[in-house]
Design goal:
Length: about 600
């Protein structure tokens, strides 16, 4: 029933262009009997493609997806588990084109609650979208800046817990080298969205798989039209690994294509004072090089905390018989340049691997399969389903996604900052929000993550005890803003929009955070029954914070009661008040819980 309705058959290109595999999108289009040849643009990769591939092999599905085509797997679901076709059907028996397309449309509609889209690109919203389109894996987060860069962008890769000293704010998360830059030249003209003509542009973030995808159809100032498909992700299976793949197809020309993939070490952390564009470089150069023509590395060290960081990259071009790789030796910006020729309608698949501390020799498909499998595990444990409200469903999944890419899976020496790993707000400091609002989610879904968040508080107890002594109390008083070692890093003042100083009192007046940490310990214990944690770590936190409250309260003989004076409540609008209801209630509960544990 399907074959008579086909307008063309597509088979692997027989042209000698290097070794061919099913996963390399290089095709020859043959019109069906009685049909005229369709234009090549009908078969170029793009969202909403008119091309639909029905394939019984996983490699064929992989190739179709790489080229931006709809892909239907024919056979058992287990066969296609690693390549994710848009639809799987056991056989073509009884399948009509109408039934196939309607089933496919229903499947696509169900995926919308897993997708955040932007179309077209809006320069006025670029920083907002860079935050939204952050990819990460708990070890690091990379903002969604364009690979070719755009004026006014704010590129950043933040590694959980990697801090360095900074003026005013004491310490802050460090902006690490940008691993994403890829500068494309077609026939001597540089691809950029602020030059030439943008014929189509769409970005979407796949929340389920943690993959950011972009489709661009661009015409150069000289009239050369190219199609680009770009995807990037931070591996959930190998947290030190980041991956970027770019597919480029000339639509109306043939000629030389050049891609420069680099590691940009010329990065700054935006300033606190205005203008914020005047940033702080936390890095000292320690070395760079090219172990092979396709590889480059950059070695840096933070200036104060003296933490070494090595970023390495590897570039590979598939589907071309002849590719010339040339090292790019710019100081602070090492990279690899790939040059190759493309004919009209041919597609080159370019893969850039970036490794922070580690390296990987695995192929793209294998890396992606492990990454997807890890995301499957996380969503199986963490997804929240809402029926009948697509907007709410997408919003919940978007927020869960950002929690999952900021969770410290590999360490108990870091926590989740107020802005997660998506930007520089609050300088990457940790607040009570993590203990009261974020940790409960993990306690009921990924208790091992909640345990790590609490162990961060345990490891920072010495700093909390030191802070209690500083304010004339006993026990442990947790910092309102903390970073790597738990010291109080709340700035005493910050500049206002007009440049004048604004006094920040939170670090001195919001002691309720000590009870908030104790609440997180209690909630985790009740949710998990982890008695070993309470015995070895939690009880010490609870008793230390209770000792702080016992020394912080003041007895009022006229009222015959204990009071907590000169504080700020969690709304932060009422400063230097006595007996804030939330603070008093939490302190009383903290002491009562400590007594119960002691007994």
């Amino acid at each position: 029933m399907l074959w008579p309705r086909c307008s063309a058959t597509v088979r692997p290109s027989s042209r000698a262009s290097g070794s061919w595999t099913s996963s390399t999108p290089s095709w020859t289009v043959t019109p069906a009997q009685g049909a005229s040849p369709p234009p090549i643009s009908s078969y170029t990769p793009r969202p909403g493609s008119e091309c639909l591939v029905i394939e019984d092999a996983a490699a064929g599905i992989e190739g179709a997806k790489a080229a931006g085509m709809w892909a239907v797997g024919l056979g058992p679901k287990e066969r296609f588990r690693a390549v994710r076709p848009d639809l799987v059907i056991p056989s073509l028996t009884g399948i009509t084109p109408e039934k196939l397309l309607s089933t496919l449309a229903a499947r696509m509609a169900s995926r919308e609650t897993w997708t955040v889209r932007e179309a077209p690109f809006d320069p006025k919203k670029q920083r907002q979208m860079e935050t939204i389109f952050t990819v990460g894996n708990g070890y690091l987060g990379t903002r969604g800046t364009l690979e070719e860069r755009y004026p006014g962008d704010l590129s950043a890769t933040l590694i959980s817990g990697l801090c360095d000293d900074a003026p005013l704010v004491h310490t802050e998360l460090v902006n690490t080298p940008n691993w994403t830059p890829c500068y494309l030249m077609v026939e001597g003209e540089r691809f950029a969205l602020d030059r030439g003509e943008v014929l189509a542009c769409e970005r979407n973030l796949d929340l389920r798989e943690g993959i950011l995808r972009r489709h661009v159809r661009w015409r150069s100032p000289k009239g050369h039209t190219a199609e680009l498909l770009i995807e990037r992700w931070a591996s959930m299976a190998e947290p030190h690994l980041c991956v970027l793949r770019l597919l480029v197809t000339p639509l109306d020309f043939e000629g030389e294509v050049e891609l420069r993939a680099e590691i940009d070490g010329m990065v700054e952390t935006p300033g606190v004072t205005s203008p914020t564009e005047v940033g702080l470089c936390h890095w000292a150069w320690a070395g760079q090089g090219h172990p092979s023509p396709q590889r480059a590395f950059l070695h840096l060290q933070t200036r104060k905390s003296e933490v070494d960081l090595c970023v390495a990259t590897h570039l590979a071009v598939e589907g071309r018989a002849s590719v010339r790789y040339v090292p790019c030796t710019c100081p602070w910006q090492p990279g690899v340049v790939a040059r190759f020729a493309l004919r009209r309608g041919e597609t080159a698949v370019i893969t850039k691997l970036a490794s922070l501390y580690t390296s990987s020799e695995a192929g793209y498909s294998a890396l992606l399969s492990k990454h997807r499998a890890r995301w499957d595990e996380l969503w199986e444990r963490c997804d929240v389903e809402i029926e009948g409200d697509e907007v709410a469903q997408r919003a919940v999944r978007f927020n869960l996604y950002h929690l999952l890419i900021a969770a410290p899976y590999l360490t108990d020496r870091a926590s989740i900052p107020a802005k997660a790993l998506s930007g520089f707000g609050y300088r990457g400091h940790v607040f009570w929000d993590t203990d009261v609002f974020i940790l409960p989610f993990f306690a009921f879904t990924l208790p091992e993550v909640a345990r790590s968040l609490l162990l961060y508080r345990y490891h920072t107890l010495p700093a909390a005890r030191e802070r209690a002594v500083q304010v004339g109390c006993e026990g442990a008083m947790y910092a309102w803003e903390s970073a790597d070692d738990g010291r109080e890093v709340t700035p005493k003042w910050v500049p206002s929009e007009t440049g004048g100083p604004v006094h920040i009192r939170c670090g001195d007046l919001e002691p309720h955070i000590s009870a908030d940490v104790t609440y997180a310990v209690w909630l985790y214990w009740k949710a998990t029954g982890d008695d070993v944690f309470i015995r070895d770590y939690g009880a010490e936190i609870v008793l230390s914070t209770a000792a702080f409250w016992a020394s912080r309260v003041e007895y009022n003989p006229k009222q015959g009661r204990y009071e907590i004076r000169n504080v700020m409540g969690p709304d932060e609008y009422h400063e230097q008040v006595d007996n804030n209801a939330f603070t008093n209630a939490m302190a009383q509960w903290n002491i009562q819980f400590a007594l119960e544990l002691w007994e």
